[in-house]
Amino acid sequence: MATFLYKIGRMSFRRRHVVALIWVALLTLAGVGAAGAPAAGNSSFSIPGTEAQKAFDLLEQRFPGTSADGATARVVFKAPSGEKMTDPGNKTTVQETVKELSDGSEVVRVTDPYQAKAVSKDGTVAYAQVSYKVSGMELEDSSRDALEDSAQDARKAGLTVEIGGDALQTVPHTGTTEIIGIAVAAVVLVVTFGSLVAAGLPLLTALIGVGIGVATITALAGALDLGSTTSTLAMMIGLAVGIDYALFIVSRYRAELAEGRDREDAAGRAVGTAGSAVVFAGLTVVIALVGLSVVNIPMLTKMGVAAAGTVAIAVLIALTMIPALLGYAGRRVKPAGEKGKLLGRAGAQDKQDKPAKPNLGTRWASFVVRRPVAVLLLGVVGLGAAAVPAASLELGLPDDGSQPTSTTQRRAYDLLSDGFGPGFNGPLMVVVDAKGSDDPKAAFTQVGDEIKGLKDVVTVTPPAPNKAGDTATITVIPDSKPSSVATEDLVYSIRDKGAGITADSDAHVLVTGQTAMNIDVSEKLNDALIPYLVLVVGLAFLLLIVVFRSILVPLKAALGFLLSVMAALGAVVAVFQWGWLADLMGVEQTGPVMSMMPIFMVGVVFGLAMDYEVFLVTRMREAYVHGEKAGQAVVTGFRYGARVVTAAAVIMMAVFAGFIGSSESMVKMIGFGLAIAVFFDAFVVRMAIVPAVLGLLGRKAWWLPRWLDRALPNVDVEGEGLHTEPDRGDEDRELVRTP
Q1: pTM of the predicted model, to two decimals?
Q2: Which of 121, 193, 352, 361 has a Cα at 20 to 30 A from 690?
Q3: At what angle do helices 16-36 and 298-329 cross, to 10 degrees?
């Protein structure tokens, strides 16, 4: 592989005009397609195989036109101090608002609070429920605007009006800290390379790759039902890996220049060696993202595949466009150790009479190799301590109660809790399918009576049958808030009762509604976590065996990743569930950790962690293959790779930490979790535990059974083939060895 990529690097350097033209043409083509495509909305949301989804599908069949899984909004009214909602003036305002809400094109029905008895016992709070034809993720912006305008009109009449429900569900926006994160990435690149030109190359190519990926997603959004959240994930991952991959190759290019090679040969060698690491690092990210399909949530699968496509584009750009741009940059990109005037560093010529001082990476690796046991114990114990809170992990999906207190959704949630009780924010819909029962009415009554006798039930409405009389819905109001363990237990209790009713009367009982759907999604994600881990880590393990031609090195990489993920989950629990440093992070409401967080963190962080593993350890493997002793190979790998991996990790942390500034708790949690996971993995696992373990193992780290060595393909990631083949460039000399 190294020889093949070497030829691609040289060809791209030499034919830079053609390469640049091709990528610009692709960007233009994708941009034109995106411009001509309809605006990306929110993709449809379904959870195949869950009981809640089966109930929604059944309601669509038995109650046609009711849009059972459509969005809902609760417009909550509160009377001024000293007044009641039943006062004539307030009643008139509410009824006018109900009439105004009914005019929406996507509205199915609006309940009148006074007819539906939706007024609190003390008469101070009332609510109107708006039901829509489509889900909250498919709702048009015009419908949301009409909803908010109606509420504003009621406010002008003197009422306090807030809106809850999933109808206001939108793609969350991040704060200004995301821009700060990108600025930090730019500064790190400048400090790393000491040149604006060299620093600008990774940013430029990453932006081009993300531009092509996001524009393609936008162009295909309508045909493939890709929502705007899909492009958000692709942008975040594509930007992060795009910068990293380009950083790896530009750094290797500068190292090759420092060895005295001409620029075309250096570009070829950079792509042949660092480019090989980029290919396999990119493959691990793609495996992790595509592997999200095992969860069997269509929206998550589409997000993963789209982000994986953007990563593949980042790899191709790094292998072709980076050497092309290096050709354009010429002497403006300096050899390693020779900085430009930007940082005031002396050139290499000025240092010829001075002995070279070992860099920080060399000094650190030498220390770790001398004290491997102490460093290993310190790293493992530290991560283990950070992971302790993960034992108290509680999973759930966020509801309006987890929103910031400044939002109308949270204020509506609090008003309903005060007026009707906390469980009123998460009603359960029980669907009774009595089509196979001899006495459907008796079955409906039996279900209602059984539910009334359960713990944590406040209200059970009378059964509401369909026209055929074979299916009925029953609304159950729990005593606890939607995200509580008590409400989850109630859902399972109703389902257990339903199993007994089915045996007695052949009537099937299904529990659905937003709260039940959240519970089912959480359970589905939990059940998929272990298979996902086995698939992703297993495939990556096999891939790394091919890359490193070792059993113990990939095993160490996988175990180290699990340590960093557990430590990151522990940090998330401590901040978002326990409330540690909550004020510093802007966390207004603690509660269960988002159920998607563990599997999402595993997928994204595993791919990124393998980036650092592949780049750092391939340098060690390269030195070992070229004759260095095992311990010295570790030091050599750090001498060339530590600075680059550190810069890449800081950039990644800065990009992810930018999402902590979001007002949306879910986005804030993702940003914090990914940033802290990268910190643990890059600086504790890869920078401390990895060299300590390799120092302890010595030559055994690179052991591979002979039969397996013969069976595995030789991908030559370390570039051994580049040291045995004659140079086919303009020079006739043989290629010299790279340390």
Answers
A1: 0.78
A2: 193
A3: 150
